[in-house]
Amino acid sequence: MGQNLTKKEKEVLKKGNFKSIKKHFDFENINKTNTKGKTPLHFACFWNADKQILEYLISRGCNVNKQDENGYTPLHMLCQTKFPLLIDSLDVLLNNGAQLNLSANDGKTTIHIAATNDLINLETFKYMIESGGDVNAIDGDKKTPLLLLCETENPDPLKIRVLLEARAKINVEDKWGLTPLHALVKNTKKTSLIEMLIENGAKVNAQNLKQQTTLHCLFKQSHPSKSLAKVLIQAGANLSVSDQQGNTVLHYAALNKHIKKGITSLLLENGSDPLQKNYEGQTALKLSKKISNSNVNKEIKSFLSENGSTDPIKKKTLIDPKIRNNLLNKISSLKSFNEIQPEDIEISRRIGNGAFKEVFEGNWNGQCVAVAKLIEGKNFNEEQLNDFTQEIMTVCNLDHPNIVKFYGGYINDTSKLMIICEFCQGGDLYDLLHSKKDLNNKQKIQIAIDVANGIKYLHQNHLVHRDLKSPNVLLTEKGKAKITDFGLSKTMNTSMTFMNNTIVGTPRWMAPELLRGEQNYTNKVDIYAFGILLWEISTRKIPFEGFGPFQLSGLIGFQGQRPELSEKDLFFDLIKKCWDQDPKVRPKIETIINDLENLLLNN
C-alpha cells in the first residue's frame, strides 16, 4: 500500500492491455503511487484506457477523487489526455463519484482543462457541463474556463458558444483585470468570434489593471487587424480612453511600426484626437515622428490637413441632402428651443459613443456640460437622423429633477446637429452596479425611487422611453439618478397605445411585447424594463448574461423567461409584478413609487 509504482507497472498501464493490468494490479497494490502521488487510475486515465480497464481499477479500490501532489484527480488526468476522449470513459468516472468541480492546487477544475484541450470534442465538453461542470469556476489566477479558452492560440468558437449558452460570465476579470474579450482580441483575427462575445454582452470599454481597453490590447499586437478594430469601434469602443500612462489607442498605433495602411485613418475618422497628449506631454503625431513611424505619421498629417481642426464640434457629418430640409423643418417648429452656437462650446474629452452618436464633456459659459452630436465623417440614413431629431424634440420640453436637464443645442445646420445637456459627474448606473463599490439597501432604494419618479414624469407627459436600462440612467456627484437618452422615445395617442412595426430598444431590458414585434403597446413597456432594472439594482448582476439578442427574443418574448429571482432579493414582490408577461397586470408607476417609499421607510 505504501510502495511506489514500478517502471514496469507504469509501462503496463501505458500499453493498456486489460489482461496485463489484471495480472499486475489487484486489491493489495491498487492505490500504489509514483513519487508525485499518481495512482494506477491517474495513469490509466492519462493514457486514455478503455472503459473495461477503468471499471476494473475502480472495482479493485482505486480512489476516483485521489489527488496527486499537484491536486490533480484521475478526472483531471483524463481531461489532459493526448488522445481523443470518449464519453464512455468519462461516464465510468462520473458514475463512480468523480467530482467535476474539484480544484487542483492551481485552482483549475476539469472544465478549465477540457475547455483548452482540442482533443476533447464538443459533444464530450457539452456532456461534462450538462453533468454539473461549473462554467464559472475560477482558478488561482481568477480565470474562468471561458477566459482560459479565449487565451489559447486558436480559440474554438463552438466551445465558446457552448460556454455562453451555459451562462458563462462574459465580463469576469482575472487577477490582472483581463476579460475574455481582452484575451480574445490578442488571439484571433476572426471578427465572428469578437462579435459573438459582444452580442452576448462583452464590454468593449472594460479596462484591465493597466487601464487598457480591448482596443488598446488589439493595438499592442504586432499586426493589429483593421476588421477587428472596426468591429470594436462599431460596438462603441471609446477611442479617447487613456491607459495608466495616458496613452490612447492612437498613441499605441503611433508606437507600432507594423500598422498597415488605412488603420490610422480608421481611428482618426472615428474620433481619435492626434493632438491629445499622454502624461509625458506626447501626442500621437509627435510619437510617430519620434520613432520614424512613417505610415502613421503620414495619415495623421493628411487628416489634419484635410480637416483643419481636431475640435469635434467644428467637424461635419455626412447627411443625404434629400432629408436635410425635412429634418430642419421638424426641428425649427420647436417653440422652446435654446440655440447655442458651436463656437460657444469648449470640448475637453469624449465620454461615450454609440452607433451614430458620440458624447463629449464640454464647457459652456463656465458650466460643465455634456455635448451629444452625430459622429463626424459618417454617412447617416433617415432612421438614424430621425432618432437624433426625436431626442432633440423630446428633451427640449422636459423639466424634472430626475431627467437629465437640457440646456439647448444647434440645429441650423444638420451636418452639425448637437444637444447640450447637464453633465453628471457620477457616471452611469450600469458601471456603478457592476463595479466593486459598496451600495447599501437605502442607496439602492433611493436610486430606484429617483428613476421611478422620472418615469412618472414621462408618462404624465404622454411619453414612453422604450429604452430604459442602467446605461441610460446617469448619476450626479451626490448619487441622484437621472434618466437620459430619448432617441427612441414616443408620444402616446389618446388611447394610451403606440403604433409601431419595428423592434426597438435593448433586448436584455426589453418588454416581451416589443420583442414579439407587436404593433400595439402601452407605456407598460417601461414598467417591464423598470422591473429588470430593479433586479439589476438588487442583485448587481447583468440581466441574461451569456445570451445574445437573437436568443433573448425567443426566451423573453415567447417563452416568458426571466432572470433568476430569489425571495431574498430586495425588491422581490415588486419585480414579479413589474415584469409580468401580461402588460395589463403590471402596476402603474404611481403604485410602484408608493411601494418603494414604504420600503425605504422600513430600511
Account of the protein in words:
The chain is of the alpha+beta class and 603 residues long. Among the domains are: 314-422, Phosphorylase Kinase, domain 1 (2-Layer Sandwich), CATH 3.30.200.20; 429-602, Orthogonal Bundle (Transferase(Phosphotransferase), domain 1), CATH 1.10.510. Helix content is 41%, strand content 9%. The chain has helices at 7-15, 18-24, 40-46, 51-59, 74-79, 87-95, 110-116, 122-130, 145-151, 157-165, 180-187, 191-199, 214-220, 226-234, 249-254, 263-269, 284-290, 294-307, 321-332, 382-395, 429-433, 441-460, 512-515, 524-539, 549-557, 572-578, 589-602; strands at 318-319, 345-353, 357-364, 367-374, 379-380, 406-410, 418-422, 463-464, 473-475, 481-483, 490-491, 498-499, 520-521. A hairpin with a 3-residue loop joins strand 2 (345-353) and strand 3 (357-364). Helix 7 runs parallel beside helix 9 (145-151) and helix 11 (180-187) runs antiparallel to helix 12 (191-199).
What does the secondary structure layout of this molecule look like, with pairings?
Layout: H1 7-15, H2 18-24, H3 40-46, H4 51-59, H5 74-79, H6 87-95, H7 110-116, H8 122-130, H9 145-151, H10 157-165, H11 180-187, H12 191-199, H13 214-220, H14 226-234, H15 249-254, H16 263-269, H17 284-290, H18 294-307, E1 318-319, H19 321-332, E2 345-353, E3 357-364, E4 367-374, E5 379-380, H20 382-395, E6 406-410, E7 418-422, H21 429-433, H22 441-460, E8 463-464, E9 473-475, E10 481-483, E11 490-491, E12 498-499, H23 512-515, E13 520-521, H24 524-539, H25 549-557, H26 572-578, H27 589-602
Parallel strand pairs: 1-5
Antiparallel strand pairs: 2-3, 3-4, 4-7, 6-7, 8-11, 9-10, 12-13
Helix pairs in contact: 3-4, 7-9, 8-10, 9-10, 9-11, 11-12, 11-13, 16-18, 17-18, 19-20, 22-24, 22-27, 24-26
